[in-house]
Amino acid sequence: TFYSSFQFDDYLYVIDYCKAHPLKDFWPPYGTRYLTYLSFALNYRFGGLNPFGYHAINTLIHVMNGLLVFGIVSATFKAPVMSKGEEEGSGLPFAVALTSALIFVAHPVQTEAITYISQRFASLATLFYLLSLFLYAKWRLSSSGAGFALYLGSILSALFAQKTKEISFTLPFVIVFYEFVFFRGGNAGRRLLSLIPFLLALLIIPLTIFGFGLGLPGGGGGIGEEIRNLQLRDLATISRHDYLITQFRVLVTYLRLLALPINQNIEYDYPMFRSALDPQVVFSFLFLLIIFSSAVYALYRAVLKRSPLILLASSGVIWFFAAISIESSIIPIKDVIFEHRLYLPGFGASLAFSAICFYLIGRLRPASFIKPAIALIILTVVPLSIAAYRRNSVWRDEVTLYEDAVKKSPFKERVRYNLAWAYQMKGDPDKALKEYLEDLRLDPKKEKAHYNIAVIYQTKGNGQEALKHFAEAIRLNPANAIAYYNMALIYQARGDAKSAILSGLQAITIDPGYGDAHYNLAWAYSEQGDDTEAIAHFREVIRLNPDSADALYNLGLIYKKEGKTAEAKDAFTAALKARPDYAQAGLELQGLNSTKAGRIGR
Questions:
Q1: With 0-12 CB in 10 A as exposed, 13-18 as middle and 19+ as buried, what is 532?
Q2: Whether pTM exceeds 0.85
Q3: pLDDT along the chain (602 residues), means of 10
Q4: Which residues fall within 8 angstroms of residue 202, CB to CB, at 6 or more apart?
Q5: How many CA within 13 A on the CB side of residue 172?
Q6: Residue among 438, 446, 450, 441 nearest 406 (CA)
Q7: Residue 580: Cβ within 10 Å count
C-alpha cells in the first residue's frame, strides 16, 4: 500500500492542510486532533506529498499498536485476579496475547484506518490510548523505583490521546474499570487518588469542542478548527434520537464485519432510521442488549469464580462497547458508518475472540497451549491476512476505490460524484461525464457536478453545453466566480467580446482579487479597442502579482501602440526581470518591430 494515492478526505485534511499550515502554526497546541495534524505536518516537512512516507508512518503506528495489544494482554495475565491463568496450561498468556495481537493487526476491517492516510486520526489516538493503559498496567505491577516514571508516562499518554482524536474521551473510564476489575486490595483512598489525573483529562475534549479555551495566543489557534466547526454543525442539525437508534443497526453491521469481513466499503449507503419501533431497530437493540448484558454477567461470575479467560473475554466485549460509544451513541455525525471507527474497538473484539477460543481449548486439557495457538493462528490470522491484502488492492487509487464503492452503493450520490471526479483527474473525460450525469440523476442540484460537466464540455469544444451547465452551476451558487470566468473564456473563443466582458465583470465582482479574470478582461477590452480599461485591468493583475510577465508584456504593447515609449520600456524591462527567457519582451525592448504594434498576447 505504500504507493497508494491520496484519497477522499486526504486532500482536505492532509494535502490542503499541510500546504496552508507551516510548522510555525503549531504552537501553542490547540484542538482535539492537534497531534495528528502535527504528524501530517512533519510528514510534509520531510517528505513533501510523496504518499510513501505517510503510508510508512501509518503502518509503523499499526505495528506499534499490535505490539501494545500483545503487551497489555501479557501484563494483564500478571494481575492478581489473573494468577490462575498461569496455571491453566503452559504458554497460555503468550498464546492469548499473540493471537489477540495478530488478529488485531491482520483483520481486513483495519485497512481503512491504516491505508486511508487521513484516518491516522484513529490509529494514532489508539496508539496513545493503548500506551497509556499498558504503562498503567506495568506501573500497577511494578515494585521497583521505575514505578513513578511508568505512572507519569501513562498520564502523559492519556493527555496526548485527548489531543489526538475525540474517541480518547473514554480512556479514563477504561483505566478506572481496569483498576477495579483486575487489581484488588490496597488502600482505597490512595487508589482513587492515583486515578484523579486521568479523570481530570476528561475535561480536555469537551472544553475544547464547546468553546472554552479558544482564542489562545499564537498562530496555532486555528489548528483543527474546521473539524470542530463540523462537529458543532452536526450537533446542531442532526437529531440525536435518530442517530442513536440508527447506531443500534450500525453496531450490528460492525459486529458482522468483525465476524465476517466481506463486502467492505468506503461508502455504505446506510439509511437514517426515524422510529425506535422500526423492526430493524428493535431487533438490533435486543441483540446488542443480550451481548452486553451477557458480558456484564459473565464478568461478574468470572470475578467470583476467578476464571481468567472468561474475565478477559467479557472485558473485551465491554471494551468494544466503551470504545465505540463516542461515535455510535447520542453524539451525531453526518456519516453514520465508517469502518475506521472499528479500529480501537477492534482490540476488545480480538481479545474476546481469543479468550473464548482458548477457554474452549482449555476444556480439552491440553498439556501446552502453543500448538493449539499455532493451529488457531493458521485457521484465523492467515485467512484474515489474505482478505486484508485483497482489500488493500482496492485502495490503489481513487478510481479503483470508487469503482468498488459504486458496485456496492450504486444509489449513493457522493459515491457517484467521487468516481466521476476520479475519472476526470485520471484524464478519462468520457467515463467522468457518464458518472457526473448519473450523479445529477441522483441529485439534480449538485452544483459541483454541473460545473465539472461544463469543464469537460468546454475541453471537448462543446461551448453550448458547457455554457448551459456553467449557468446552472451559477444558478445553484451565484457566488461561483470561476464559472463566470470560464463562461468568459468560451465567449472570447467565439469572438463575443461583449458577453466575455459581462461574464468577466461578474467574476471580479464576486472575487475582486481574481487575477486571471482581470487578465482576460484586459484582453477582451483590448480586442474592443478600449485601451483605457485594458490598461486598468493589466495594472490590477500586476498589483495582485508583480511577477506576472505576460501582463507586463501586454501592458508594454499597449503603451507602445499609444506611443508611450518610456512606459513601454519600463513594462518590457519588468517582464524580462520577472522572466529572463521572455524572448518577445527582449525583442520589443531592443526596438525590433518598433513600427508595428503587437497584438495583445494570451
A1: exposed
A2: yes
A3: 91 89 84 92 94 97 98 94 63 95 98 96 98 96 82 96 95 96 82 93 88 43 70 86 96 97 95 95 97 96 90 97 95 94 98 96 87 94 97 95 96 96 95 97 96 96 96 96 96 91 96 94 90 94 93 90 86 91 85 47 43
A4: 169, 172
A5: 20
A6: 438
A7: 10
